[in-house]
Amino acid sequence: MTRRMNRLSQLAISGARTKTPGMYPDGGGLYLCVGSENARSWIFRFSRAGRTRYMGLGSLAAVSLAEARQKVGEARRLLAGGQRTPSPRGTLSTPQRGR
Question: What pTM was estimated for this model as a whole?
Fold first, then answer.
């Protein structure tokens, strides 16, 4: 069974469907997180070492749907390459060893 990608559209994001608080999936770990009508942001949800992690990608006003999809694609490539944890600045980093 394949997972559906690109579920959200620009029309759906601006429409009444996404005004109710909750998390709206786009596919591939990308979610539109709605807190209130004016508080909407993009979240990348992934799991590492059996734990679910969340990485904020920016607010809906600052990051478009296309940009959010591009950021998630880049983050998935980095995670597949062995990087595990989000850094404080929102980029993925390789864990430090020997400490």
Answer: 0.76
